[in-house]
UniProtKB/TrEMBL annotation:
InterPro entries linked: Ig-like_fold (IPR013783), KIAA0319-like (IPR029865)
Pfam families in alphabetical order: K319L-like_PKD
Keywords assigned: Signal
Cross-referenced Gene3D superfamilies: Galactose-binding lectin, Immunoglobulins
Top-level taxon in the UniProt lineage: Bacteria
UniProt KW Signal keyword: yes
Signal peptide: 1-24
UniProt GO cellular component terms: cytoplasmic vesicle; membrane
Name of this chain's protein: Uncharacterized protein
Length: 572
């Protein structure tokens, strides 16, 4: 689209204003000489000058002369005298376009004449100002007019756009952030396209459905925050702008720890239990500290109470079981959040253990007491007892549900009898395995008789001061049981250390199967009498005590007189 601008020159006076040639515009100059005897830039004729036109390198300049006309017949000198313009070859009137700068192509130069009827089509290579002059040597009556049309075609000049990424922003993590490139401009008014790019910080997803104002969600950041930097460039279809940058400062918004003490657990008593808080986390990625505390139930000892997985041993519980409650507190250094978990401890019942005692030996007719006191239950449960007879002569148990019932041993023959009993205990849930005990019932045993006992020998002769073996005989046991003799005391009626007569001590010695007595007596005495006391016990524990004497007479056929058992024969 070309626009024509007409500049008129009248009376050689340059009209006000300059012709500014815009892109792709056409400018027409109309020169209207009114006065003569003017000189134009060295030409010796009257001339007129238009105002200047600014030209730039690359402008396409087209000048087409439209000719000369005179308003008054004869006013324009010419061969016809009728005012008609002369042929171009004869014309001395000319259009004189020239520039303020030199070295331009074509005929455009300093004061280069351009005659009527000529045209010019050139490209400008150097900037300058175009002026249009006119010589009126053919129109002396000041009534002529010389017309010429000048077209300047200027190629479009594209200016780069300017990106504007907007002001820096401070936002909180998790918030919706809108970037703003609406302040970007194009000097030429061209439509722009926008290209955003993140150049630093935690990557985010830009929603560019609105490329001028894209959005994103601020990422979660650590306590110190983080800066995200974005770059914006715009494009006008030909040129790309310089990049502009915007910083988005993302502030940390502390989030509470997500504390998880774990699901409810069911465990057996006395088992090792591990609590589990490992699912606890901090949304901000902060380092957490842990503290476990028991807040209900039978107290236990926690090992590792500041870790995610402490352990403890479940306590022993009754049949009804028990519930222990633990609390986990997790702290991010700013705030702490707690959670609890219940641990159900179940009773694990163990069968009780029955113990009916060891073999019993009792005489017929005696009371026999059975003994289940060593029975036990490892859970500590209260147990009940149940006795019954399995073998042997039937007896009547006093209380078969007692811990230690009794019965009377039956009468038996010489060989006695064997009775067998069974004990079962119960903890309220399960019974024990049976335990057994044997009771051997013996025929009644009479103690041995010591009344018929005598020393053998009962007289020691001769009194030669030697030790002589002495035994005790004559003991009787009604059942002919083996009898064991225990020496109790050995005494005498004379001093053990008497002088003279070759007295020698000791006067008595105990032996495993008897004793030794010294065959001596005082020469001036009435003989020596030894007194021996003993205890005789049969194989059933029945016993008797007795005493025998041994004498050493003064002479061979004499009789010793006991003056009293005053001296211990076993002492010197």
């Amino acid at each position: 689209m070309f626009r024509k601008i007409v500049l008129a020159i009248t009376g050689g006076m340059v009209l006000i204003g300059a012709c500014i040639v815009a892109n792709a515009e056409t400018t027409t100059f109309t020169v209207d000489p009114k006065y003569s005897d003017r000189y134009l830039a060295g030409y010796p004729h009257t001339g007129f000058q238009s105002s200047g036109v600014q030209l730039l390198p690359g402008d396409h300049l087209i000048i087409v002369s439209t000719g000369l006309s005179c308003a008054v017949p004869g006013g324009c000198n010419g061969p016809n005298g009728n005012g008609a313009p002369p042929p171009p070859s004869m014309a001395s009137s000319f259009l004189a376009p020239y520039l303020s700068a030199t070295a331009l192509v074509g005929k455009i130069g300093t004061n280069a004449p351009f005659f009527v009827g000529e045209s010019l089509d050139v490209f400008v290579t150097q900037a300058g100002t175009l002026y249009l002059g006119f010589n009126d040597s053919r129109c002396d009556d000041n009534s002529g007019a010389f017309y010429s049309q000048i077209t300047v075609v200027r190629p479009p000049v594209n200016n780069p756009p300017v990106a504007e990424a907007g002001a820096d922003q401070t936002v909180t993590e998790g918030s919706l952030v809108t970037l703003d490139g609406s302040a970007a401009i194009d000097p030429d008014g061209d439509a722009l396209t926008f290209q955003w790019m993140q150049v630093s910080g935690t990557p985010v997803a830009l929603n560019t459905s609105d490329s001028v104002r894209p959005t994103f969600t601020a990422p979660l950041v650590t306590r110190g925050g983080e800066t995200l930097t974005f770059r914006l460039v715009v494009n006008d279809g030909n040129l790309v702008s310089k990049p502009d940058f915007v910083n988005i400062n993302v502030k940390n918004l502390n989030h509470l720890p997500e504390t998880e003490a774990g699901p409810i657990m069911t465990v057996g008593e006395r088992s090792q239990v591990t609590l589990d808080g490992s699912a606890t986390f901090d949304p901000d990625g902060d380092v957490l500290t842990y503290q476990w505390t028991q807040i209900a139930g039978s107290p236990v000892e926690l090992s590792g109470a500041t870790t995610t997985k402490p352990v403890f041993v479940a306590p022993a519980v009754g049949v009804e079981g028990a519930i222990l409650t633990f609390q986990l507190s997790a702290s991010d250094g700013i705030e702490a959040v707690s959670d609890t978990v219940d641990v159900v401890v179940e009773n694990i019942n163990h069968a009780p253990l029955a113990d009916a005692g060891d073999l019993l030996m009792r005489n017929e007719g005696n009371t026999v007491v059975l003994n289940g006191s060593k029975s036990s239950d490892q859970d500590g449960d209260l147990i009940t007892y149940s006795w019954r007879q399995l073998e042997g002569i039937p007896v009547q148990i006093s209380n078969s549900y007692a811990q230690s019932p009794s019965f009377t041993a039956p009468f038996v023959g010489l060989d006695g009898a064997l009775l067998k009993f069974e004990l079962v205990v119960n903890d309220g849930l399960v019974e024990s395995n049976p335990a057994h005990v044997l009771v051997k019932v013996l025929d009644v045993n009479a103690p041995p008789s010591c009344d018929t006992a005598k020393a053998d020998p009962s007289v020691l002769w001769p009194p030669n001061h030697k030790l002589a073996p002495v035994g005790i005989t004559g003991l009787q046991d009604p059942e002919n049981n083996e009898v064991n003799i225990e020496l109790l005391n050995i005494t005498q009626d004379e001093p053990t250390n008497g002088l003279g007569d070759g007295d020698t001590s000791l006067d008595a010695y105990k032996q495993e199967n008897g004793l030794l007595l010294r065959a001596e007596r005082a020469g001036n005495g009435n003989g020596r009498t030894y007194g021996i006391t003993f205890k005789a016990t049969d194989s059933f524990g029945e016993s008797c005590t007795g005493a025998v004497t041994v004498t050493v007479p003064h002479d061979r056929h004499g009789i010793s007189i006991d003056d009293g058992q005053l001296y211990d024969s076993l002492l010197p």
